[in-house]
Amino acid sequence: xxxxxxxxxxxxxxxxxxxxxxxxxxxxxxxxxxxxxxxxxxxxxxxxxxxxxxxxxxxxxxxxxxxxxxxxxxxxxxxxxxxxxxxxxxxxxxxxxxxxxxxxxxxxxxxxxxxxxxxxxxxxxxxxxxxxxxxxxxxxxxxxxxxxxxxxxxxxxxxxxxxxxxxxxxxxxxxxxxxxxxxxxxxxxxxxxxxxxxxxxxxxxxxxxxxxxxxxxxxxxxxxxxxxxxxxxxxxxxxxxxxxxxxxxxxxxxxxxxxxxxxxxxxxxxxxxxxxxxxxxxxxxxxxxxxxxxxxxxxxxxxxxxxxxxxxxxxxxxxxxxxxxxxxxxxxxxxxxxxxxxxxxxxxxxxxxxxxxxxxxxxxxxxxxxxxxxxxxxxxxxxxxxxxxxxxxxxxxxxxxxxxxxxxxxxxxxxxxxxxxxxxxxxxxxxxxxxxxxxxxxxxxxxxxxxxxxxxxxxxxxxxxxxxxxxxxxxxxxxxxxxxxxxxxxxxxxxxxx
Length: 498
What we know:
Layout: H1 10-18, E1 40-47, E2 55-57, E3 64-66, E4 74-81, E5 86-92, H2 99-113, E6 120-124, H3 143-162, E7 165-175, E8 181-182, E9 184-187, E10 204-206, E11 215-218, E12 225-233, E13 239-246, H4 260-272, E14 287-292, E15 298-299, H5 314-333, E16 344-354, H6 360-372, H7 384-395, E17 401-411, E18 414-418, E19 422-423, H8 425-434, E20 439-443, E21 452-453, H9 456-461, H10 478-497
Parallel strand pairs: 5-6, 13-14, 18-20, 19-21
Antiparallel strand pairs: 1-4, 1-7, 2-3, 4-5, 7-12, 8-15, 9-10, 9-11, 12-13, 16-17, 17-18
Helix pairs in contact: 1-2, 2-3, 4-5, 6-7
C-alpha cells in the first residue's frame, strides 16, 4: 500500500506542535530526565472525534453513517521511561487503524521527542461505532477526517511524554468470564450451509444464532484474563494511568460515534482508583485505557444459553461490560506490588507474508456476480455473493506480499506482544503459555491492520473469519510464522534481561 501524499504535512505540523512550547523530551538522553535510574511515567487522552456529519463508520457489510456523537473517540496514551529507554502505549478508539496512519503518527512523535518508533505501540480498540479510518467491505472513510488522525495521535504521544514524572509501576491479572464466548461453532456431521463463494464445505459457523440445531459446540476456547498495568506518582501516590487488556471483540453497535466498552471502562476505572480526588486538581489527568486482546473469534454472546440471553440496547450493554470489567480490574489493581525500579526493552520485526487472492477462474466468477446481482436502492449490495465478489476484485490489486509489523516489549518480568490483526484466542493463549516471563498479554490490531489471524486449523474449518476479503487475506500459515518470530523475540528479551 502507498503512503498517503499527506505525509508531506510532517514538517509543517512538527513546527506547529513545537511552537511556543518547552523543549520536548529526547527519550534516549538520560540528562533530560535527571538521574538515569529514575523511572518516570505520564499519560494523556487526545480527542480524535470527527467534526463533520454524517460520518462513515466501519463494522458492517454495508457502509453506514453516524449522525452524531454518543461518546467521543480518543487516542489514550501511556508513556514510560526507565531513564534510558522509553515505551509508549497508544490505544485508539477506532475499528480498524491502517498502517499508514500509525506510521505517520510515529514519525511525527519520534522526530519531536527522540523516542524511536519501535518503542511506540499504537493499536485500535475495534469499536464498531467509530468513524472509519480505512476501507472495509462497502464502507469508505472520509479522506478529510483521515488526514487529521495521525497528527492528533502524535499530539497525544508528545503530551504524554511531556507529562512524565517520577513514578512507580505494577501489574496484576484478574479474571472475568462473564462476557467472553467463542463465537465460532462446529457444524454437525451431515449438516451444511452455503458460504459467499457458493460452497458448502465450511465446518465452522460464526454467530449461528441461539438454538441453532445445525451446530454442536464452540470451535475453540476463550481467554478470561483481565490484565492490568498501572503507574502512580512517587510524590503523592496519585494514579497516573492504567492500561488493561481483555479478549472481547466489542460490546455494541451504537448508531452514534462511540468508543464502546473501551471508552466506558476508561471512565469507570478512573472513578474506582480515586483519580478525581480534589488533592490532584491542576495536575495531569489520570488516563484509563482498555486494549483489545486476542478476540478474533470471541464475542459477548452465549449462543448455547437457554433461555436465550437478555437483550439490552447498545448504550446499556457497553456500560454493563465496562462496570464488571472495572470491578475485576480494581481487584487486580489493589493487589499490585509497586516497583520504583523498572527496566524496559523492546523488539520489532516486519514480516513479509503472502496475500490470498482469487484464482483467474474465481476472479472471473466474481466479476460475473458483480455484473449480474443488482444493488439495493442505497447503491450497495445486500447479497453476500456480490459483497465477497467485490472483495476478490479489490484484493486482486494488492501486492503478492505485505509487511506485517510484530512487536514484543518487556517491562521487568511482564511481556507484552503486538500483532496488527484480529488475532484468534488460541494464539494469545499459546503466547501466554510460552512466554519466559512471569506473565504475558497480547494487544491485537496494533501498528496497522492485516485482517483476521486464524490458526491453520481454523482455516481448514472455514467460516466468516477465514473468508477471503480485505478483512481476511493473509496466507493460511501466517499465524505459525508470526508466532515463531514472537518466540524468538521472547528469547532475545530474556537473554538481555539476565
